[in-house]
TrEMBL record:
One of its GO terms (molecular function) is UTP:glucose-1-phosphate uridylyltransferase activity. This is UTP--glucose-1-phosphate uridylyltransferase. Residues 10-271 form the Nucleotidyl transferase domain. It is an enzyme of class 2 (transferase). Its EC number is 2.7.7.9.
Length: 303
């Protein structure tokens, strides 16, 4: 009788990037702390992890990331001021981030790529499977992608990556996967190509920023030479595992068809804020009314 697979409880969130696409806003403010409506992007990611049952979160940070740590810490002076004013709603929201999970921090040091950031998690993760969540992708809580990935890993083992169909002309912006169907919405990944020319892409299934990784990935990453940009690429390690399961563990993909908010560049960031604001019950009705009026009256000839 095979022993049950270990329950996943740890999430790793790489947060050491410089955020150069958002300069000068990110000169002194971490990109993870840029507000999406009224809470920082990084909080959405931590909330997603905890909603999937991951209570132990490790953030891979770097220089100038202290505000991230402060955000998830207590602020007794602010809490006391809100309490004395009787502002219970804002007090609740301020305290919410401190009670989400047990959060740990480790510095990446040199920015050597996503693969290197994942390697920094090995002492904390050990020999257990774990999740990796990238902060540029926000997943709507009504579409529990990470929960589905954890279930797929429990059923099939190995590592699981999130895939999403994109317009074939846009596949050069992503890593692309070649796959064989296994079960409903689950694919066996047979190969990965980072940012291929659309004419050479194996499919229009793009890798998005959610992974559930087998600990064998650490050994593979340790042998992975620097790739694109002179950095250690997680995609390269997963490609080695997908093309030769004996190199680590098989790789599966879960195809995501839900709501995803891309905050990776300025235009997508603005679109994400508008979409999320429109969905909010406290802001949406008034904001949607204003938006319709603005588009119809203020921008009638904009194409």
């Amino acid at each position: 009788m095979t022993s049950p697979r270990p329950r996943i409880s740890k999430a790793v969130i790489p947060a050491a990037g410089l955020g150069t696409r958002f300069l000068p806003a990110t000169k002194a403010t971490p990109k993870e702390m840029l507000p999406v409506v009224d809470q920082p992007a990084i909080q959405y990611v931590v909330e997603e992890a905890t909603a999937a049952g991951l209570t132990d979160v490790l953030m891979i940070t770097g220089r100038n990331k202290r505000p991230v740590e402060d955000h998830f810490d207590r602020n007794y002076e602010l809490e006391d001021a809100l309490r004395r004013k009787g502002d219970e709603e804002r007090l609740r929201r301020v305290q919410q981030s401190t009670a989400l999970a047990t959060i740990h921090y480790v510095r990446q040091g040199d920015p050597k790529g996503l693969g290197h950031a994942v390697m920094c998690a090995e002492p904390h993760v050990g020999d257990q499977p774990f999740a990796v969540l990238l902060g540029d992708d926000l997943i709507d809580p009504r579409d529990p992608l990470l929960t589905r990935m954890i279930e797929a890993q429990a059923e099939h083992g190995g590592s699981v990556i999130a895939l999403m169909e994109v317009d074939p002309s846009q596949i050069n912006l992503y890593g692309a996967a070649s796959v064989d169907p296994v079960a409903d919405g689950v694919m066996r990944v047979t190969g990965l190509v980072e940012k291929p020319d659309p004419a050479d892409a194996p499919s229009n299934l793009a890798i998005i920023g959610r992974y559930v990784l087998d600990p064998s990935v650490f050994e593979v990453l340790d042998k992975t030479p620097p790739g694109r940009g002179g950095e250690i690429q997680l995609t390269d390690a997963l490609q080695a595992m997908a093309s030769d399961p004996a190199a680590g563990a098989p790789v599966y993909g879960v195809v995501f068809k839900g709501r995803r908010y891309d905050t990776g560049d300025r235009a997508d960031y603005l679109r994400s804020i508008v979409r999320l604001a429109c969905e909010r019950p406290d802001l949406g009705p008034e904001f949607r009314s204003w938006l319709r009026q603005y588009v119809s009256e203020e921008m009638p000839h904009v194409e």
